[in-house]
Structures are given as C-alpha cells and as structure tokens.
Amino acid sequence: MTTMPAQPTTNGAAAPAAPRPGEPLLEVTNLVKHFPVRGGVFNRVVGRVHAVNGVSLTVSRGEILGVVGESGCGKSTLGKLVIRLIEPTSGSIKFAGREITGLGHAEMMPFRRKMQIVFQDPYSSLNPRMTVRAMLREAMLFHGVVEKSAVDDRIDQIIQTVGLRPDAAAKFPHEFSGGQRQRLGIARALALKPEFIVADEPVSALDVSIQAQVLNLMMGLKEEFGLTLLFISHDLKVVEHFCDRVMVMYLGFVVEEIACDRLHNDDNSIGALHPYSQALLGANPIDDPDDRRPLTVLQGDVPSPYDLPRGCPFAGRCPKVMDRCRQEMPPLVERPSPAGGPPHRVACWVV
Fold first, then answer.
1. pTM above 0.90, yes or no
2. DSSP β-ladder status, 228-232 and 196-200
3. Residue 200: what are its φ and ψ, rounded to 5°?
4. pLDDT over 70 for what percent of the chain?
5. How far, CA to CA in Å, does 344 sit from each of 100, 166, 264, 269, 279?
6. How far apart are CA 62 and CA 225, in angstroms?
7. How does strand 253-259 pair with strand 98-99?
8. How do strand 196-200 and strand 115-118 relate by DSSP bridges?
C-alpha cells in the first residue's frame, strides 16, 4: 500500500497522514495481549491470562466493523489495544499507514486526537467534579483543536450536535440520565475531530428505546463527519443492523469474519459458517411471535483464558466437534465471497 508522507507538527512529532478513499485506516496484524498473573511470597509471575490471541483485522475509511462475542472473549481489550490505551504483548498496529505499536508518548500525541473511544459505562468514564464545559474545554485546549477564543462556540456546537440542551454545558455528569451521559461520552470523543472511534458497548447499559436513539445518533454522526468505527457489542442483532462487517471472537481468537448482509443463509448468501456464529444467531430474539423455531443453547462452559485448551478453543462446546478439532488449532481461512465484496474468513475444521 502506498502511503502519504507524514507532516511535521509543532512539537516535532509526525502527524498521521490523511488516508485516501479506499485505503485501510486501521490495520492490525497478529495482535496479542497476555496479562501476567502474580502470586507467592515474592509476587512472581505464575501464569498469564491470554486475553487476545493473534487477532488480525483491517478497517477501511468510513467503514463500521462490529466485534461480537460473549463476555470475557477479549472484545474490550482489543478495542483498547488498537488505540494504545493498553500496550500489546506483540503484534503490529498501523493507523493511516503508519506503524504506531512502538511509538512513545510524545510521538503518539498526534494520533491520540484522531483515535477516540466511547466507553461502555459513561458515568464512570466522566469526571464527576467537572462540568461538561470544563471537561470538553480541557480536551480541546490540550490538543489544540481550536483557538482558545473559539472554544466555547465549539462546545456549544458539539452539545447541540449530540442532541442535548444548551444549558447542559453548565451541568455535572450526575445531573444527566444514562442516555444523556452516553451522549456526553460521544460529545467528548467528537470534540477532538477524530477520524476513528472505538465504541465499546455504548448501548449495553441503556433501555431499548434509548439504545435506538443513541445508535441513530451515532449513525448520523458517522455520515456527517465521515467517521470510521470499531463497534464492540455482545448483541449480534445490534451489530447486524449497525455495522458493515462483523468479526466474531471466542476466547481471544477470531473465529469468523463476514459481511453483515451475508450473515443469514438465504438465496443471496451462504450465511455464517462457524458453529459459534450460528449459535449466536440462533440466540437472537425472533421478531415474529408465530415463529417457534428452537432456541440454540450451547452446553458446557467457556474454557479459562488462564489455561487455553489444545486445538480449537470452541471444541468443548461445539455440537459438530471432530477428533481433529481437539488436537489442532484451525487457521482463519478466507472463503469464497461475491465478486468485489468483503472477505469471508472462518476458522473451523468442519467447514
């Protein structure tokens, strides 16, 4: 891929180059994160939690990539890794064609402004001692997004953009409802004019009616500002509606990646192939009350990330398991997909 030369900034660090249309904005290769477990008298490392295990992904400019899976599968850890909130154990992260994995604090600052996150719990991620205006002003002045004289006008504009009343700027986080606080989290991310946003289960703690409002808001902002999103959720129904592609994770591994419009098995699609993806689809609520299809229920428990099983991580719960599944880890292989469409990758010996 041909990249544009980075432009120097006032602090001497290289600013991320603006990607051209059609080029990948985020490229992740073999990303691994292991958390050490300490114990004993001398607090030595006695083991490791394998949170993310060799994940590779690409997100193009203007695209929304969904990441789904059960709690504890490594979704949130992956989201924090790709924007360097936590450091990876190994692997490569490229943003706008620039390798950012080994960059220091000063070198990362131009990228911090362009890579933002909306956290799952908006209340715990907002400073309870700061008003909305003070919170947004601090971020914008620190990164030099606008001139100091124009900060207040920019704050008022952002508050209006996310659908809050003008007097919200003078209030503290505890004075808002859950849905309003999530809008504040989105406003804080938008304040720095980012190109890429990690949305870490932004609607999981909200009522269904509020979920729809927040999702519609995010979709409108994505179109208005040309944003690229990594959308993390445990709800495949939401991801199917909101995202362009979906990546299914299990125990820190990617087991399938497929376009959202090809998830279901119909005349135009072969549908999701991995047994775990099919189980997630089978667990979705059915819109038609007269449709009495059986509910998919997986047997057994998720293996411990502290002691990964040999072979396929899903083998212990898979209804289609073979002997080979228990012995060898299946590779993530690209399957045939419509001409010009996004790739369909699946890691399963059965398919």
1. no
2. parallel
3. -90, 90
4. 90
5. 27, 45, 13, 11, 18
6. 9
7. unpaired
8. parallel
| Distances in whole angstroms, Cα of residue 291 to Cα of each of 270, 288, 295 | 22, 5, 11
CA quadruple 231, 236, 241, 245: dihedral positive or negative?
A: positive
Q: Give the relative orientation of helices 132-143 and 151-161 as an angle to the nearest 10 degrees.
A: 120
- Bridge partners of 26, per DSSP, are 59, 95
Residue 198 near residue 118, CB atoms below 8 Å:
yes
Please name the helix (run of DSSP H) or strand (run of DSSP E) that holds residue 329, with its range, or none: none
How far apart, in Å, are the Cα atoms of 67 and each of 75, 197, 233, 277?
Answer: 7, 13, 6, 12
What whole-number percentage of the chain has pLDDT above 90? 63
Q: How far is CA 142 from the centre of its chain?
A: 25
Instruction: Say how far apart CA 300 and CA 316 lie, in whole Å.
Output: 7
Radius of gyration from C-alpha coordinates of the chain: 21
Token duo for residue 130: 């700061």
Structure token pair of residue 96 = 């706008």
Q: What is the pLDDT of residue 290?
A: 74
Residue 19 has pLDDT above 60, yes or no: no
The rounded distance, in Å, linking the Cα atoms of 262 and 265 is 7
- Nearest CA-CA partner of 171 in 123, 130, 203: 130
pLDDT tens digit sequence for 204-242 = 878 888 888 889 999 999 999 999 999 999 888 889 889
Instruction: Taking the CA atoms of 206, 262, 199 and 71 in sequence, report the sign of the dihedral they define.
Output: positive
Quick one: average pLDDT of 50-78?
Answer: 94
275 CB-side CA count, 13 A: 19
Contacts of 318 (CB under 8 A, 6+ apart): 275, 276, 312, 325
Residue 16: per-residue pLDDT: 44
Q: What does DSSP assign to residue 264?
A: S
Q: Closest Cα partner for 88 from 73, 103, 70, 110?
A: 103
